[in-house]
């Protein structure tokens, strides 16, 4: 075990220090110190700058992320010293407030204490800090079907939702494998955007909205062999995530039939491409609404162009680009982007983000 950690630590320290332009004397001294610490305690602690740069490297290595051009502008919040529930909740509310920034979204990551023994010191049960509940009712599913299991977990902890299609779920935090605690997010901290099309009525009477900031809270951050099981991170949305998946998928909010009907499209034949027309108008509405409310969002064409620049920057830096084509292509008009017509090596480079076993079932 320690040999693997030695090697991972050495790889990271060398690359990190080289990228930060540190003199080799300092790197050698740091390597010796880390080696000694691992031999004595079985782990080692990252310095502040190793943590900051390591988190940025993890974003840069995220093969499925089209937004990596801005990897070096990540706002890193060091929360490794927090031990009490109240402080962890406060740090999560702080993350929501700081990253939302009134709509001018700041890509941010908050890093809680690393795994030392086997039990994770802090685990966040939420998939995203802000997400809508899903309820199984006799007249069908209300809210986000993706949230059914987590909503049930929250209810078993005593949480009760209002029962609407857009009930923000509570934050759920578990310390050292003990009983998880939950905390509702103050409504004033949750910036939301009403979705409206600039020219058409897409939804009839139905009020449709979505939250401004996607904050992934259930992935494990690995840096130099050290694991951080709680390291929530946010960027801004690419419009298709909301318009082509969250509001469009049949197993999500499934709005395409309703939109087609309101647009007077012929839904009896596939060849009328009514689904495609409904998709395009919904995505126009999403981009228009976020821009109208001053909330950062990127369309998939601009995002692809930014990714092209990232590809060029990485080549200039003489780093091998890795990527997962199947996730990098946008779900709407993929062949209209350069990504579709290129191949990417899906090798896993550390530091990186990984899935982990959900802490509830
Ligand atoms: C700044 C704006 C950003 C945009 C527009 C963006 C866009 C995206 C999109 C569209 C996906 C695919 C998600 C899906 O299809 O469900 C993705 C995946 C991902 N992004 Fe980014 N991203 C951004 C920032 C970030 C940041 C700040 C991080 C971490 C520090 C990050 C890490 C990741 C990871 C780890 C994945 C893969 C998730 C998985 O495997 O489930 N991204 N990104
Ligand atoms: N724009 C974003 N989107 C994003 C990024 C990573 C992961 C996810 C959620 N992906 C899971 C969903 C559910 C199945 C397929 N997509 C969204 C960001 C979220 C956090 C930082 S950027």
Fold and architecture overview:
- The chain has 361 residues and is α+β, with helices and mostly antiparallel strands.
- Helices cover 36% and strands 15% of the residues.
- It has helices spanning 2-19, 24-41, 48-60, 85-100, 148-156, 239-246, 256-262, 274-292, 300-316, 325-328, and strands at 75-79, 108-112, 122-124, 134-137, 140-143, 171-175, 181-183, 192-194, 209-211, 215-216, 220-223, 226-228, 233-234, 237-238, 297-298, 352-354.
- The strands form 6 sheets. It has a 4-stranded mixed beta sheet with strand order 1-2-13-10, sandwiched between helices. Strands 3-6-7 form a 3-stranded antiparallel beta sheet, with helices on one face.
- α6 (239-246) crosses α8 (274-292) and α7 packs across α8.
- Protoporphyrin IX containing FE is lined by residues 59, 62, 64-67, 70, 74, 107, 109, 233, 235-236, 238, 241, 298, 303, 327, 353.
Summary keywords:
361 residues; binds the ligand N=C(Nc1cccc(CNC[C@@H]2CCCN2)c1)c1cccs1; heme; alpha+beta; 16 strands; four-stranded mixed β-sheet; binds protoporphyrin IX containing FE; iron; Nitric oxide synthase oxygenase; metal-binding; EC 1.14.14.47
Alpha-carbon distance between the termini? Answer: 30 Å
State mean pLDDT (0 to 100 scale): 97
Placed side by side, the strands forming the largest sheet appear as: 1-2-13-10
Q: Using DSSP, what is the number of strands?
A: 16
Structural class: alpha+beta
Rough shape? globular
Largest sheet: 4 strands, mixed
Query: What Rg is obtained from the alpha carbons, in whole angstroms?
Result: 22 Å
What is the succession of H and E elements? HHHEHEEEEHEEEEEEEEEHHHEHHE
Which ligands, by name, code or SMILES, are bound? protoporphyrin IX containing FE, ligand H49
Helix content: 25-40%
- Give the count of helical stretches: 10
Task: Name the poorly predicted regions.
Answer: none
Our estimate of the beta-strand percent is 5-15%
């Amino acid at each position: 075990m320690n040999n693997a950690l030695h090697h991972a630590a050495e790889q990271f320290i060398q690359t990190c220090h080289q990228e930060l332009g540190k003199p080799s004397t300092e790197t050698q001294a740091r390597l010796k110190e880390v080696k000694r610490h691992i031999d004595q305690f079985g782990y080692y602690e990252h310095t502040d700058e190793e943590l900051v740069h390591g988190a940025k490297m993890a974003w840069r290595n995220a093969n499925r992320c089209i937004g990596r051009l801005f990897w070096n502008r990540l706002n890193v919040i060091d929360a490794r010293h927090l031990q009490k529930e109240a402080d962890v909740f406060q740090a999560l509310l702080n993350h929501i407030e700081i990253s939302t920034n009134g709509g001018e979204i700041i890509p941010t990551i908050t890093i809680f204490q690393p795994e030392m023994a086997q039990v994770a010191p802090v685990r966040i049960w939420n998939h995203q800090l802000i997400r809508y509940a899903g309820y199984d009712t006799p007249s069908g599913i209300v809210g986000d079907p993706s949230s059914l299991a987590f909503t049930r977990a929250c209810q078993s902890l005593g949480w009760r939702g209002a029962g609407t299609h857009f009930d923000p779920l509570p934050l759920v935090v578990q310390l050292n494998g003990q009983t998880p605690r939950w905390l509702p997010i103050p409504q004033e901290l949750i910036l939301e955007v009403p979705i409206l099309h600039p020219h058409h009525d897409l939804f009839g009477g139905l009020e449709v909205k979505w939250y401004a900031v996607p904050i992934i809270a259930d992935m494990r951050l690995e840096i130099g062999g050290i694991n951080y099981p709680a390291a929530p991170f946010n960027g801004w949305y690419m419009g298709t995530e909301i318009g082509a998946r969250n509001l469009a998928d049949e197993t999500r909010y499934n709005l395409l039939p309703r939109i087609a009907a309101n647009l007077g499209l012929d839904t009896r034949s596939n060849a009328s491409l009514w689904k495609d027309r409904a998709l395009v108008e919904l995505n126009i509405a999403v981009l228009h609404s976020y821009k109208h409310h001053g909330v950062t969002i990127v369309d998939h064409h601009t995002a692809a162009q930014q990714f092209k620049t990232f590809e060029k920057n990485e080549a200039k830096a003489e780093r091998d680009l890795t990527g997962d084509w199947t996730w990098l292509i946008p779900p709407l008009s993929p062949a209209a982007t350069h990504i579709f017509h290129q191949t990417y090596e899906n090798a896993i480079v550390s530091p990186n983000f990984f899935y982990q076993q959900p802490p509830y079932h």
